[in-house]
């Protein structure tokens, strides 16, 4: 919505294509947009593969990557500081007395998951706690998947007292599993999510999370794209936006 509003102010219309986090649909969408000779493209890629990004580079059509970061490709990007966000989240858990912290991660081929893992590790290191990879679990996004994974972790007998989740949806699933198994949140286990979606404020207990300004992400992505369209040249700029820890009742 923020992209559409920013575009409208500049006299542009937006064609929206939802690819459902499916790389094949994503690649088809890129090809479709290029065939329509659009003025520019904003894409939030799955990062499962990067052939579609290479297509964009070769096309000379202005484009901006939104929400993720590519380590090995120099392209215009707008994304939030995921290393800082996860560092804040895990540091907060540690400061609440938690020392055995599970990380329910997204798939680590995604830059967002890798950067949040880096922040998780950094927080442990700076608080003199060891990193143990057996506490890191890659989970497909979705409330049911995180619910099932949390049940598996509990049933495995792993000793933990905190859970940091890749996003708020994962946190909701994890919290349901914890409650069903008799854990009190936050007395027995503290939980922190990520994104600060609307539900984070309304679930019980209210979710401590990391807030991303998605509206600003969208606005900045369009303004960067507009700059390239106006100048008729590639602008290789990376904009990293700040994040904020929002403390509620799950910690």
Automatic annotation (TrEMBL):
Entry keyword set: DNA-binding, Transcription, Transcription regulation
Organism, scientific name: Fervidobacterium pennivorans
GO MF: DNA-binding transcription factor activity; transcription cis-regulatory region binding
A Pfam short name: Peripla_BP_3
Alphabetized Gene3D superfamilies for the sequence: 3.40.50.2300
Name this polypeptide is given: LacI family transcriptional regulator
Domain Transcriptional regulator LacI/GalR-like sensor: 90-251
Lineage: Bacteria, Thermotogati, Thermotogota, Thermotogae, Thermotogales
rRNA processing keyword on record: no
Coiled coil: none
């Amino acid at each position: 919505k923020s992209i559409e509003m920013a575009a409208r102010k500049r006299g542009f219309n937006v064609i929206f294509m939802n690819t459902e986090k499916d790389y094949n649909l994503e690649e088809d969408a890129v090809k479709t947009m290029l065939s329509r000779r659009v003025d520019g493209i904003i894409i939030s890629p799955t990062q499962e593969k990067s052939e579609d990004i290479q297509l964009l580079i070769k096309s000379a059509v202005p484009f901006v990557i939104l929400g993720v970061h590519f380590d090995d490709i120099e392209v215009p990007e707008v994304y939030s500081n995921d290393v800082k966000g996860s560092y804040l989240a895990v540091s907060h858990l540690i400061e609440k007395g938690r020392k055995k912290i599970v990380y329910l991660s997204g798939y680590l081929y995604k830059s967002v998951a890798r950067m949040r893992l880096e922040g998780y590790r950094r927080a442990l290191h700076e608080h003199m706690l060891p990193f143990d990879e057996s506490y890191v679990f890659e989970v497909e996004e979705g409330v049911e998947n995180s619910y099932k994974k949390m049940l598996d972790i509990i049933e495995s007998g792993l000793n933990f007292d905190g859970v940091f989740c890749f996003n708020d949806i994962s946190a909701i699933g994890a919290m349901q599993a914890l409650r069903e198994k008799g854990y009190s949140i936050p007395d027995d286990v503290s939980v922190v999510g990520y994104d600060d979606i609307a539900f984070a404020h309304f679930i019980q207990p209210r979710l401590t999370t990391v807030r991303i300004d998605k509206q600003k992400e969208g606005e900045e992505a369009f303004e960067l794209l507009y700059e390239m369209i106006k100048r008729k040249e590639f602008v290789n700029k990376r904009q990293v936006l700040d994040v904020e820890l929002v403390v509620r009742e799950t910690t």
